[in-house]
Amino acid sequence: MTKCKLEYIWLDGYQPTQTLRSKTKVVDDFSGNVEDAEVWSFDGSSTQQAAGNSSDCLLKPVACYPDPGRLGKGFLVMCEVMNSDGTPHRTNGRSTIMDDDDDFWFGFEQEYTIWNPDTNKPIGFPAEGFPAPQGPYYCSVGSGKAIGREIVEEHLELCLESGLNVEGINAEVMMGQWEFQVFAKSAKRAGDEVWVARYLLERVAEAHSVSINWHCKPVQGDWNGSGMHANFSNSLLRTCGSQEVYEQVCNAFQPRIQEHIDVYGADNDQRLTGLHETQSIDKFSYGVSDRGASIRIPIATVERGWKGWLEDRRPASNADPYMVASAIINTVRSAKVGTPA
Fold this sequence. Notes:
Layout: E1 3-11, E2 20-28, E3 40-43, E4 56-66, E5 73-82, E6 105-116, E7 121-122, H1 149-162, E8 166-171, E9 177-184, H2 187-207, E10 211-213, E11 228-233, H3 235-239, H4 243-251, H5 257-261, E12 286-288, E13 295-297, H6 299-303, E14 310-312, H7 321-334
Parallel strand pairs: 1-5, 12-13
Antiparallel strand pairs: 1-2, 3-4, 4-5, 6-7, 6-9, 6-10, 6-11, 8-9, 11-14, 13-14
Helix pairs in contact: 1-2, 2-7
């Protein structure tokens, strides 16, 4: 009989930014199938999700991955938080995604900063002052430019061994800032994999005595912020072959600026300033290959005859991918496609 360690992972109730929690359940001969992972419970009064006199919240397994970073046989079990009666908890963003037929595909570009707790700055930054201005750090190689590669490579390997569909990594514009990309042909699955990848990154950082800063503007001044650009498509965008349809979908976002900003991450006003490859937080624009727009129409979409995807560049690095996907799906479905502009 083989003992298996199941790491149940969930999102707490902290606001404005939820954080990851997890605990281990030891079971016998686990199959690795999420359907065989039992519903568990936790003390919601310790995570700002319940009162002390009625503190039980439920963990409903929704995705399961091998845990390659643990000795023995382990699994990472992503969970939704449910009330004690089995209904979705108010903090359960995954339950708000209305896409049961998985028509929507999502790719998230998760930026983050590796943080030195001793200096309270990104790794590579001097204890006093600043490094050379940004420019040489993006997709860089070499000492003094690509700082923290050993952490990034270790994280990538763990993600791939666990079966997460991480499609790439790169050093970002600010020193100590990096990115990984996750893609799934399911909005919920894309959210699951971003959160599990975030969990693995936090665990790697623990081992290296650094931390991960998810804030969207970790260093004030002339430094890029951190985003979580959301690339999305549905069957309409993948097949329409029409510039007019793309423009109608983009225009559906215009009257919903605040609705999106409300779920696109805390302190995003510090990042969405109109500078550093962003549009201002209170404005909306779209354009082909325009990284200063709210929504970028990739050149690949145009070259394929207007069959492809869109990129919403506004979500912050600390946003919940479940809530981002939910908002985008609702807006795309509201588009008046086929009606005169």
